Task: inverse folding
């Protein structure tokens, strides 16, 4: 790099040294030509994904499933054990307290992303917005003692039982105000000659290095990547499974972070990020293609409903956002008072191989759109 990237200095604290990263609100230059090639590919894949999503009728029906998938995978990175099917179960009383807490964390992630998208209309990406989301993520879960929405006021560390054996010690809390101010300026400095995907890569590195919250920093920056791409009009909706790739390549990610910090090599981390975006776009496009194919097949099956086809179509559309249902859901959806009529619709959806029975409980039967749900597992 022309202006050689310097990632850090160590700062002596009482009995330990904290990592103090350099400010990032400046231009960056790179020598590795592989970055240019990957940058072109990543932009192309994002354009293909955004273009493809525009051709899918009723794309909003499928957005909630993308958000649910992302919530599950992002939480798995933090060792939460909720499975995809658990998110749509009507009855969770049989689960242990730990399993229910895991489920609440995932549900909070979904609410946080939806809240972030709504607030993004009025607030730019900033720590004010991050803190609002952090509070939403930690509401009603076992980590409420981790100071929801507050920038940390004490020293934290990553891996290890204490500061004495920690793998990485982020900046001291007294250094956070200046680092946060620099971070926000970098995000919104339009005078910097840095492509957006390079910019979000550097911002990602800096956020993870600052580690501004006592916990749940990872979920915040994974949300931040999606929202940054939306804010910059690169994509129009959260249709990226960014956590899926990271969950499968977490140790390569940690290696890239460590090399950037210890060897002043941000280029390797940028390469990892660009490959991450490329593969994520390909996987998202593949899923959308499969969804579109299933949608066409399922709609052809509705012909058997004849005069009731409009109501059947409403049920099918509902299943794209709620793939597990019971007769009460159908009653509410169609605004009918007869359980018998609702069950008849369900029975016919079973006959045409759209729904199948999920539970054997005679009193609380649930039915699943298995062919659709399996595309997101």
Result:
């Amino acid at each position: 790099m022309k202006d050689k990237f310097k990632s850090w200095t160590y700062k002596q604290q009482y009995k330990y040294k904290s990592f103090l990263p350099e400010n990032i609100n400046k231009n960056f230059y790179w020598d590795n030509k592989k970055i240019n090639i990957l940058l072109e590919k990543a932009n192309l894949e994002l354009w293909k994904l955004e273009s493809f999503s525009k051709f899918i009728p009723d794309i909003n029906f499928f957005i909630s499933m993308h958000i649910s998938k992302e919530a599950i995978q992002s939480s798995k990175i933090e060792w939460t054990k909720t499975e995809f099917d658990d998110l749509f179960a009507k009855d969770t009383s049989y689960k242990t307290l730990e399993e229910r807490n895991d489920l609440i964390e995932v549900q909070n992630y979904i609410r946080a992303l939806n809240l972030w998208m709504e607030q993004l209309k009025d607030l730019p990406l900033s720590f004010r917005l991050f803190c609002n989301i952090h509070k939403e993520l930690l509401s009603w879960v076992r980590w409420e003692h981790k100071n929801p929405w507050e920038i940390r006021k004490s020293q934290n560390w990553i891996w290890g039982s204490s500061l004495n054996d920690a793998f990485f010690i982020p900046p001291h809390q007294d250094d956070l105000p200046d680092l946060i101010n620099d971070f926000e300026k970098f995000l919104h400095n339009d005078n910097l000659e840095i492509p957006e995907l390079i910019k979000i890569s550097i911002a990602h590195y800096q956020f993870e290095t600052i580690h501004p919250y006592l916990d749940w920093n990872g979920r915040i920056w994974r949300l931040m990547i999606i929202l940054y791409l939306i804010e910059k009009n690169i994509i129009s909706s959260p249709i990226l499974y960014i956590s899926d790739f990271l969950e499968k390549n977490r140790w390569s990610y940690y290696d890239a972070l460590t090399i950037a910090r210890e060897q002043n090599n941000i280029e390797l981390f940028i390469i990892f990020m660009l490959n991450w975006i490329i593969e994520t776009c390909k996987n998202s496009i593949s899923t959308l293609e499969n969804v579109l194919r299933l949608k066409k097949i399922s709609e052809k099956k509705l012909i058997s409903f004849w005069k009731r086809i409009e109501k059947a179509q409403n049920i099918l559309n509902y299943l794209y956002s709620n793939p597990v249902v019971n007769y009460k859901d159908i009653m509410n959806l169609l605004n009918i008072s007869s359980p018998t009529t609702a069950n008849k619709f369900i029975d016919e959806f079973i006959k045409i191989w759209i729904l199948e029975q999920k539970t054997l409980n005679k009193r609380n039967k649930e039915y699943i759109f298995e062919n659709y749900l399996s595309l997101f597992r």
